[in-house]
Protein backbone atom coordinates (compact mmCIF):
# COMPACT_ATOMS: atom_id res chain seq x y z
CA UNK A 1 0.00 0.00 0.00
CA UNK A 2 1.33 3.42 -0.96
CA UNK A 3 1.78 6.00 1.77
CA UNK A 4 0.98 9.69 1.40
CA UNK A 5 3.87 12.11 0.99
CA UNK A 6 2.01 15.13 -0.37
CA UNK A 7 1.68 17.08 2.84
CA UNK A 8 0.72 20.75 3.23
CA UNK A 9 3.69 23.03 2.83
CA UNK A 10 4.28 26.18 4.91
CA UNK A 11 3.54 29.15 2.68
CA UNK A 12 3.46 32.86 3.27
CA UNK A 13 -0.07 33.90 4.07
CA UNK A 14 -1.13 30.51 5.40
CA UNK A 15 -2.93 30.29 8.71
CA UNK A 16 -0.35 30.74 11.49
CA UNK A 17 0.27 28.22 14.19
CA UNK A 18 -1.12 29.12 17.58
CA UNK A 19 1.88 30.89 19.04
CA UNK A 20 2.56 34.29 20.60
CA UNK A 21 2.89 37.15 18.14
CA UNK A 22 6.44 37.96 17.15
CA UNK A 23 7.83 34.42 17.43
CA UNK A 24 8.32 34.07 13.66
CA UNK A 25 11.56 32.11 13.89
CA UNK A 26 10.10 29.74 16.47
CA UNK A 27 6.99 29.31 14.32
CA UNK A 28 9.06 28.39 11.25
CA UNK A 29 11.09 25.94 13.28
CA UNK A 30 8.00 24.21 14.65
CA UNK A 31 6.43 24.04 11.18
CA UNK A 32 9.53 22.50 9.62
CA UNK A 33 10.03 20.05 12.48
CA UNK A 34 6.40 18.96 12.37
CA UNK A 35 6.56 18.43 8.60
CA UNK A 36 9.73 16.37 8.77
CA UNK A 37 8.42 14.31 11.68
CA UNK A 38 5.12 13.60 9.93
CA UNK A 39 6.80 12.69 6.63
CA UNK A 40 9.14 10.29 8.38
CA UNK A 41 6.22 8.62 10.09
CA UNK A 42 4.29 8.23 6.84
CA UNK A 43 7.10 6.82 4.71
CA UNK A 44 6.96 3.09 4.11
CA UNK A 45 10.10 1.03 4.59
CA UNK A 46 10.90 0.85 0.88
CA UNK A 47 10.41 4.56 0.23
CA UNK A 48 12.36 5.42 3.37
CA UNK A 49 15.38 3.53 2.04
CA UNK A 50 15.50 5.92 -0.91
CA UNK A 51 14.60 9.05 1.07
CA UNK A 52 17.39 8.33 3.57
CA UNK A 53 19.96 7.65 0.86
CA UNK A 54 20.51 4.01 1.81
CA UNK A 55 19.38 3.18 -1.74
CA UNK A 56 20.07 5.50 -4.65
CA UNK A 57 17.88 6.47 -7.59
CA UNK A 58 19.91 6.33 -10.82
CA UNK A 59 17.14 7.13 -13.33
CA UNK A 60 13.69 8.75 -13.33
CA UNK A 61 10.87 7.50 -15.57
CA UNK A 62 7.79 9.68 -15.77
CA UNK A 63 4.40 9.71 -17.40
CA UNK A 64 3.49 13.00 -19.10
CA UNK A 65 -0.21 13.93 -18.98
CA UNK A 66 -1.47 14.14 -15.41
CA UNK A 67 2.05 13.70 -14.07
CA UNK A 68 4.91 15.65 -15.62
CA UNK A 69 2.61 18.39 -16.94
CA UNK A 70 0.14 20.39 -14.91
CA UNK A 71 -3.61 20.45 -15.76
CA UNK A 72 -2.96 23.25 -18.27
CA UNK A 73 -0.49 21.00 -20.13
CA UNK A 74 2.47 23.04 -18.96
CA UNK A 75 5.89 22.00 -17.71
CA UNK A 76 6.18 24.32 -14.72
CA UNK A 77 9.34 26.17 -13.78
CA UNK A 78 9.55 24.22 -10.52
CA UNK A 79 9.33 20.82 -12.18
CA UNK A 80 11.78 21.84 -14.87
CA UNK A 81 14.30 23.10 -12.29
CA UNK A 82 14.06 19.92 -10.20
CA UNK A 83 14.58 17.64 -13.20
CA UNK A 84 17.49 19.69 -14.50
CA UNK A 85 19.11 19.58 -11.07
CA UNK A 86 18.64 15.80 -10.99
CA UNK A 87 20.17 15.45 -14.47
CA UNK A 88 23.13 17.58 -13.41
CA UNK A 89 23.58 15.18 -10.47
CA UNK A 90 23.70 12.22 -12.87
CA UNK A 91 20.05 11.18 -12.59
CA UNK A 92 18.38 11.87 -15.95
CA UNK A 93 14.74 11.37 -16.93
CA UNK A 94 13.03 9.20 -19.51
CA UNK A 95 9.43 10.03 -20.38
CA UNK A 96 7.10 7.06 -20.78
CA UNK A 97 3.86 8.23 -22.32
CA UNK A 98 0.88 6.98 -24.26
CA UNK A 99 1.20 10.01 -26.51
CA UNK A 100 2.53 10.02 -30.05
CA UNK A 101 5.54 11.97 -31.25
CA UNK A 102 3.80 15.32 -31.67
CA UNK A 103 3.89 19.08 -31.09
CA UNK A 104 4.02 18.59 -27.31
CA UNK A 105 7.58 17.25 -27.53
CA UNK A 106 9.01 20.65 -28.49
CA UNK A 107 7.53 22.21 -25.36
CA UNK A 108 8.78 19.49 -23.02
CA UNK A 109 11.76 17.38 -24.06
CA UNK A 110 14.35 20.16 -24.60
CA UNK A 111 13.80 21.37 -21.02
CA UNK A 112 14.40 18.10 -19.17
CA UNK A 113 18.20 18.05 -19.32
CA UNK A 114 18.15 14.52 -20.77
CA UNK A 115 19.43 13.14 -24.08
CA UNK A 116 18.21 9.60 -23.44
CA UNK A 117 15.71 7.77 -25.68
CA UNK A 118 12.07 8.39 -24.82
CA UNK A 119 9.10 6.01 -24.72
CA UNK A 120 5.85 6.68 -26.61
CA UNK A 121 2.54 4.99 -27.47
CA UNK A 122 2.26 3.02 -24.20
CA UNK A 123 5.69 1.47 -24.69
CA UNK A 124 5.13 0.55 -28.35
CA UNK A 125 7.60 3.09 -29.74
CA UNK A 126 11.01 4.01 -28.34
CA UNK A 127 12.75 6.83 -30.13
CA UNK A 128 16.22 8.32 -29.77
CA UNK A 129 16.84 11.87 -30.97
CA UNK A 130 20.22 10.87 -32.38
CA UNK A 131 19.50 7.36 -33.66
CA UNK A 132 15.81 7.44 -34.53
CA UNK A 133 13.41 4.58 -33.79
CA UNK A 134 14.97 1.90 -31.57
CA UNK A 135 11.90 -0.23 -30.93
CA UNK A 136 8.46 -0.40 -32.48
CA UNK A 137 5.52 -2.77 -32.25
CA UNK A 138 2.29 -2.81 -34.24
CA UNK A 139 -1.19 -4.22 -33.88
CA UNK A 140 -2.12 -7.30 -35.86
CA UNK A 141 -4.26 -6.48 -38.88
CA UNK A 142 -7.21 -8.68 -37.90
CA UNK A 143 -7.40 -6.94 -34.51
CA UNK A 144 -7.54 -3.56 -36.25
CA UNK A 145 -10.30 -4.70 -38.59
CA UNK A 146 -12.36 -6.09 -35.72
CA UNK A 147 -11.96 -2.85 -33.77
CA UNK A 148 -13.10 -0.84 -36.77
CA UNK A 149 -16.21 -3.01 -37.05
CA UNK A 150 -16.90 -2.69 -33.31
CA UNK A 151 -16.62 1.12 -33.44
CA UNK A 152 -18.99 1.27 -36.40
CA UNK A 153 -21.53 -1.02 -34.74
CA UNK A 154 -21.55 0.96 -31.48
CA UNK A 155 -21.27 4.45 -32.90
CA UNK A 156 -18.04 5.52 -31.22
CA UNK A 157 -15.03 7.31 -32.66
CA UNK A 158 -11.93 5.24 -33.40
CA UNK A 159 -8.50 6.82 -33.81
CA UNK A 160 -5.40 4.98 -35.03
CA UNK A 161 -1.90 5.92 -33.86
CA UNK A 162 0.83 5.51 -36.47
CA UNK A 163 4.18 6.81 -35.19
CA UNK A 164 3.88 10.58 -35.48
CA UNK A 165 0.41 10.50 -37.10
CA UNK A 166 -3.12 9.97 -35.82
CA UNK A 167 -5.78 9.04 -38.35
CA UNK A 168 -9.54 8.47 -38.20
CA UNK A 169 -12.46 8.05 -40.56
CA UNK A 170 -13.39 11.68 -40.03
CA UNK A 171 -12.54 14.16 -37.33
CA UNK A 172 -15.23 15.04 -34.80
CA UNK A 173 -15.59 16.46 -31.30
CA UNK A 174 -14.08 13.30 -29.85
CA UNK A 175 -10.95 13.19 -32.00
CA UNK A 176 -10.55 16.95 -31.48
CA UNK A 177 -10.09 16.28 -27.75
CA UNK A 178 -6.57 15.17 -28.62
CA UNK A 179 -5.64 18.71 -29.68
CA UNK A 180 -5.67 19.87 -26.06
CA UNK A 181 -2.87 17.40 -25.33
CA UNK A 182 -0.84 18.73 -28.28
CA UNK A 183 -0.94 15.40 -30.05
CA UNK A 184 -0.45 15.29 -33.83
CA UNK A 185 -3.66 16.77 -35.29
CA UNK A 186 -5.97 13.86 -36.21
CA UNK A 187 -6.35 13.38 -39.95
CA UNK A 188 -9.57 12.44 -41.75
CA UNK A 189 -8.66 9.61 -44.12
CA UNK A 190 -12.01 7.99 -44.87
CA UNK A 191 -12.68 4.31 -44.09
CA UNK A 192 -9.91 3.05 -41.82
CA UNK A 193 -10.06 -0.37 -43.47
CA UNK A 194 -8.19 1.12 -46.41
CA UNK A 195 -5.27 2.07 -44.14
CA UNK A 196 -4.78 -1.41 -42.71
CA UNK A 197 -1.53 -2.78 -44.11
CA UNK A 198 -0.62 0.66 -45.45
CA UNK A 199 0.16 2.49 -42.19
CA UNK A 200 2.15 1.21 -39.18
CA UNK A 201 -0.74 1.21 -36.69
CA UNK A 202 0.54 0.64 -33.18
CA UNK A 203 -2.58 1.30 -31.13
CA UNK A 204 -6.23 2.26 -31.42
CA UNK A 205 -8.44 4.35 -29.16
CA UNK A 206 -12.20 4.06 -28.81
CA UNK A 207 -13.42 7.56 -27.92
CA UNK A 208 -16.75 8.70 -26.50
CA UNK A 209 -18.15 10.03 -23.23
CA UNK A 210 -16.67 8.58 -20.06
CA UNK A 211 -19.97 6.86 -19.28
CA UNK A 212 -20.32 5.36 -22.76
CA UNK A 213 -16.79 3.96 -22.76
CA UNK A 214 -17.32 2.49 -19.29
CA UNK A 215 -20.47 0.79 -20.57
CA UNK A 216 -18.68 -0.64 -23.61
CA UNK A 217 -15.50 -1.78 -21.89
CA UNK A 218 -16.79 -5.19 -20.75
CA UNK A 219 -17.82 -6.02 -24.33
CA UNK A 220 -14.46 -4.87 -25.68
CA UNK A 221 -12.65 -6.93 -23.04
CA UNK A 222 -14.68 -10.00 -23.91
CA UNK A 223 -14.16 -9.52 -27.64
CA UNK A 224 -10.38 -9.13 -27.47
CA UNK A 225 -9.62 -11.38 -24.49
CA UNK A 226 -6.33 -13.21 -25.00
CA UNK A 227 -5.72 -11.41 -28.30
CA UNK A 228 -5.06 -7.76 -27.41
CA UNK A 229 -4.46 -5.67 -24.30
CA UNK A 230 -6.60 -2.76 -23.12
CA UNK A 231 -5.81 0.26 -21.00
CA UNK A 232 -7.04 3.74 -20.21
CA UNK A 233 -4.99 6.90 -19.79
CA UNK A 234 -7.74 9.53 -20.07
CA UNK A 235 -11.43 9.12 -19.17
CA UNK A 236 -13.56 8.43 -22.23
CA UNK A 237 -10.67 6.84 -24.13
CA UNK A 238 -10.20 3.06 -24.22
CA UNK A 239 -6.95 1.94 -25.86
CA UNK A 240 -6.35 -1.29 -27.76
CA UNK A 241 -2.72 -2.46 -27.73
CA UNK A 242 -0.87 -5.54 -28.98
CA UNK A 243 -1.26 -8.41 -26.55
CA UNK A 244 1.00 -8.01 -23.51
CA UNK A 245 2.04 -4.48 -24.38
CA UNK A 246 2.40 -1.84 -21.65
CA UNK A 247 4.62 0.99 -20.56
CA UNK A 248 6.23 -1.49 -18.21
CA UNK A 249 7.35 -3.65 -21.13
CA UNK A 250 8.75 -0.62 -22.95
CA UNK A 251 10.55 0.62 -19.85
CA UNK A 252 12.02 -2.84 -19.23
CA UNK A 253 13.33 -3.02 -22.80
CA UNK A 254 14.99 0.39 -22.57
CA UNK A 255 16.49 -0.22 -19.12
CA UNK A 256 18.11 -3.40 -20.40
CA UNK A 257 19.57 -1.49 -23.35
CA UNK A 258 20.87 1.23 -21.02
CA UNK A 259 22.22 -1.27 -18.50
CA UNK A 260 20.17 0.19 -15.65
CA UNK A 261 18.77 -2.01 -12.90
CA UNK A 262 15.00 -1.41 -12.50
CA UNK A 263 15.56 -1.52 -8.74
CA UNK A 264 17.43 1.80 -9.02
CA UNK A 265 14.67 3.59 -10.98
CA UNK A 266 11.94 5.90 -9.72
CA UNK A 267 8.76 5.81 -11.81
CA UNK A 268 6.00 8.40 -11.55
CA UNK A 269 2.47 8.15 -12.92
CA UNK A 270 -1.21 8.75 -12.38
CA UNK A 271 -3.17 6.39 -14.61
CA UNK A 272 -4.21 2.80 -15.18
CA UNK A 273 -1.67 2.73 -18.02
CA UNK A 274 1.15 3.49 -15.55
CA UNK A 275 0.47 0.49 -13.33
CA UNK A 276 3.01 -1.91 -14.86
CA UNK A 277 5.92 0.53 -14.82
CA UNK A 278 5.16 1.58 -11.24
CA UNK A 279 5.33 -2.09 -10.24
CA UNK A 280 8.48 -2.72 -12.29
CA UNK A 281 10.65 0.03 -10.86
CA UNK A 282 12.37 0.08 -7.52
CA UNK A 283 10.31 3.05 -6.35
CA UNK A 284 6.86 3.62 -7.80
CA UNK A 285 5.40 7.05 -6.99
CA UNK A 286 1.77 7.89 -7.72
CA UNK A 287 0.58 11.45 -8.14
CA UNK A 288 -1.85 12.93 -5.65
CA UNK A 289 -4.37 13.09 -8.52
CA UNK A 290 -3.81 9.43 -9.47
CA UNK A 291 -6.55 6.91 -10.09
CA UNK A 292 -7.08 3.68 -8.12
CA UNK A 293 -4.85 1.46 -10.31
CA UNK A 294 -1.79 3.72 -9.98
CA UNK A 295 -2.38 4.28 -6.27
CA UNK A 296 -2.57 0.54 -5.63
CA UNK A 297 0.67 -0.09 -7.54
CA UNK A 298 2.71 2.70 -5.92
CA UNK A 299 5.14 2.67 -3.00
CA UNK A 300 4.60 6.37 -2.24
CA UNK A 301 2.28 9.23 -3.16
CA UNK A 302 3.49 12.71 -4.04
CA UNK A 303 1.56 15.95 -4.53
CA UNK A 304 -0.87 16.50 -7.39
CA UNK A 305 0.32 17.54 -10.85
CA UNK A 306 -1.23 20.94 -10.10
CA UNK A 307 1.17 21.24 -7.15
CA UNK A 308 4.48 20.25 -8.81
CA UNK A 309 4.19 16.69 -7.56
CA UNK A 310 7.04 15.48 -9.77
CA UNK A 311 9.34 18.17 -8.35
CA UNK A 312 8.39 17.20 -4.80
CA UNK A 313 9.24 13.54 -5.46
CA UNK A 314 12.55 14.43 -7.14
CA UNK A 315 13.46 16.62 -4.18
CA UNK A 316 12.49 13.93 -1.68
CA UNK A 317 14.07 10.91 -3.30
CA UNK A 318 16.86 12.24 -5.54
CA UNK A 319 18.10 15.69 -4.55
CA UNK A 320 17.56 15.55 -0.78
CA UNK A 321 19.48 12.31 -0.19
CA UNK A 322 22.38 13.78 -2.19
CA UNK A 323 22.46 16.96 -0.08
CA UNK A 324 21.38 19.12 -3.02
CA UNK A 325 18.50 21.02 -1.42
Describe the structure.
InterPro entries: Cof, HAD-like_sf, HAD-SF_hydro_IIB, HAD_sf. It holds the Pfam family Hydrolase_3. This is Haloacid dehalogenase-like hydrolase. This protein is α/β, with parallel strands linked by helices. The chain folds into two domains: 45-137 and 246-322, Rossmann fold; 141-242, Hypothetical Protein, Haloacid Dehalogenase-like Hydrolase, Chain: A, domain 2. 34% of the residues lie in helices and 18% in strands. The protein has helices at residues 24-42, 45-51, 64-68, 77-88, 104-108, 141-154, 210-224, 247-258, 275-280, 292-297, 309-319, and strands at 3-4, 59-62, 93-95, 118-120, 125-128, 132-136, 157-162, 165-168, 187-188, 203-207, 228-231, 237-242, 265-269, 283-286, 300-301. The strands form three sheets. A six-stranded parallel beta sheet has the order 1-15-14-13-2-3. A six-stranded mixed beta sheet has the order 9-8-7-10-12-11, with helices on one face. α4 runs parallel beside α11 (309-319). The longest helix has 19 residues, at 24-42. The chain is globular. The relative contact order is 0.17.
Main β-sheet, in a few words? 6 strands, parallel
- Integer-rounded radius of gyration: 21 Å
Structurally, the number of domains stands at 2
Q: What is the overall pLDDT average? A: 89
Q: What is the CATH T-level topology of the largest domain?
A: Rossmann fold
The CATH superfamily title of the largest domain = HAD superfamily/HAD-like
Q: What portion of residues belong to β-strands?
A: 15-25%
Strand order of the largest sheet: 1-15-14-13-2-3
Oligomer, anyone? Answer: single chain
Determine and state the CATH class of the largest domain.
Alpha Beta
**Main structural class:** alpha/beta
Order of H and E elements: EHHEHHEHEEEHEEEEHEEHEHEHEH
Q: Which regions contain 5 or more consecutive residues with pLDDT less than 50?
A: 5-42
Helix content range of the residues, please? Answer: 25-40%
**End-to-end span in angstroms?**
28 Å
CATH A-level architecture of the largest domain: 3-Layer(aba) Sandwich
Shape: globular
Protein name: Haloacid dehalogenase-like hydrolase
Pfam families: Hydrolase_3 (PF08282)
Organism: Chlorella ohadii
InterPro entries: Cof, HAD-like_sf, HAD-SF_hydro_IIB, HAD_sf
Amino acid sequence: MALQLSLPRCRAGSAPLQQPAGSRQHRRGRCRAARISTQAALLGAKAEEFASGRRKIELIVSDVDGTLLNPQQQLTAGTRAALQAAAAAGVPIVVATGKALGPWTADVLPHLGSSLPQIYLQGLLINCHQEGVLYQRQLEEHIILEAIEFADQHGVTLTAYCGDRIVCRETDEQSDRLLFYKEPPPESVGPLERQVGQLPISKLIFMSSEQRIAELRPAVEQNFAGRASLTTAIPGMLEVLPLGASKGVGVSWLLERLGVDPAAVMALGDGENDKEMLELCGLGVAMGNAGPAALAAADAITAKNSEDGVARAVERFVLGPRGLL
